[in-house]
Amino acid sequence: MNFRRDISALNEDIIVEQLLRSHDPDGRWLDSEMLLQEVETILSFVLQNDVSRPLLTENCITTIEVFDSKETLPYAIFRISVQMLCPCTGENEIRKRTMVLFDLLKEYRWDAKAVLVLGVLAATYGGLLLPVHLAICDPVAASIAKLNQLPIERTKFRPWLESLNLLIKAMVDVTKCIIKFEKIPFKQAKLDNNILGETLSNIYLTTYRVVKSALTCMQQIPYFKQTQQAKKSRKTAAELSIESRRAAGELSSLGYQLLNIHTRLNKQVEDCSTQIEEEINQRLRNINIETHQDNQDVLHLLFSLQDDLPLQQYSRQISITEVQDKVTLLLLSKPPVEPLFFLLQQLYDHPSNTNTEQNYEIIWVPIPSSQKWTDEEKEIFDFYSNSLPWISVRQPWLMSSTILNFFKQEWHYKDNEAMLVVIDSNGRFVNMNAMDMVLIWGVKAYPFSVSREDELWKEHGWSINLLLDGIHPTFEGREICIFGSENLDWIDEFVSLARKIQNLGFQLELIYLSNQRRDERAMEESSILFSPTLQQLFWLRLESIERSKLKRIVIEPSKPDRVFEEVRNLLDFDYGKHRGWGIIGNGSTAETVDGEKMTERMRKIVRWGEYAKGLGFTEAIEIAAEKPCELSHTAVVPFEEALTMRVVTCEKCKWPMKRFVAYQ
After folding, report:
1. Which stretches make up the Sieve element occlusion N-terminal domain (predicted)?
2. What is the 3-state secondary structure (H, E, C) of 36-75?
3. Domain 472-625, CATH 3.40.30 — does that match?
């Protein structure tokens, strides 16, 4: 067989059978890779010869948890160490104790079994060797070493330490292979049964070797202490030297065996990983064109490569089946920024959101800035995933690199942008980025497909509703005047004229939404609605409208589009050339007016005074754009009828007419 010289093929089969009988995983999960990094850091530090090198570690063991288990990591380490520290005499007892350890670890995956045992080894030898390691430069460490009867002179046990170091490195290397194998998503792709069966058998036996070797290391602690205890021992120095060399030789032998195992196992795992990755890549390339019964196959392929409970809502872990028969919106982004909060407001808190919210779910897929998640990014993710109502990928730092590369290469995800990919209840990709349509229409965009976006543009033109719905919902039933400028003199004149017009009885709300922020306190003193958040969301919506329209203009370039032209003019507005701009309307209408023309017309309305009472502001602005009649006109209206009329306008120029009472 590939992995055994001292164990017959029959014994291999017996061991594998015993290991499988003791293997009963219950779904608990340990970040084996992170814990192994911690183990490697501890042991490489205490085994190094250069005591002046500082301890460098990015991870803290207190941040490593055992998920889906009542057992904490420290308690698991303690429980295993009790068995590993019990003396074993002879090879048979070590084998029996090894199987006892597998019984203790039956609920864990194979990688976790190996890493937990190495964790016990790191905790034990770290505690023993750290005072010895620091004794040369730290008197306190030297005193601790003496009290524990530990040798301070490393030269006396250097061969044994070198053998221990060799074995530990070999155990760490083969454990990395086991971890890599456990991360292969076998559920989403098929592998040749013969290759898989042979590799699995070798994974079981390699895990057995790691546990047995770690147990052997623990049994050699007396040899480590024997140099200091030689004076009290009845054995001669020569006898102690022979025993020490025998112990070092045993560790070296185990180390070389594991190194040989690592070479072969690593190739097997690489072959398995390559085959699975190729098949998954092929499935991903066809994901948009394959026919599915529901959305489960697609979501499992994207998120369940390594975990049956890959999602969470707040702190509750959920499975993919909970979003079955729903439209799923995959939100790909960095940790949330303000536009994404607006997205949530549109889809979860919008007044129009009634029964529709039962038919769709957002799944947040956070994408880190680099390949490795930082502690800060993990903290941000934990905060938002436990605070916001959307579903999120649980432990996104464990997502397959294959899937992340697919998002970037095939879906063209960019680091500084957010994507909202829509999958309908039948598993079809109906919109590769619905972000803009959601930011424009919110829940009205359901089911968020490209065809629905086309329908919405046929239903909506240039209007105040298009600009403010969902951003400023309290405008219903009133006339709105949105204005923007960087010219403070023009703003003051505009506001002064608007106040005079309001005093004439016009129901008008002013909203300042320039690209540049003016002093907020000055705006409040002028009773102007000014909100930095409203300002940001307004321009965000304009950008979304522009992108949405551009996609359609590419298809029909010759067709004029008023909405696109209006938005483009606002986004490209030259504040140096023009004094300002204004948009007026009352919900379903909107008119854009140049700032200079706006104030000119407003001055006319002020001059009309009480004769303009009864006109709407938008109507008055439109009338003021017309030239008055050159000749005077008279309209005779009965007194009682005149009392009920809101305003009397000229039949030709539509300007309001002055009222006179005539007696006949």
Report:
1. 11-289
2. HHHHHHHHHHHHCCCCCCCCCCCCCHHHCCEECCCCCHHH
3. yes
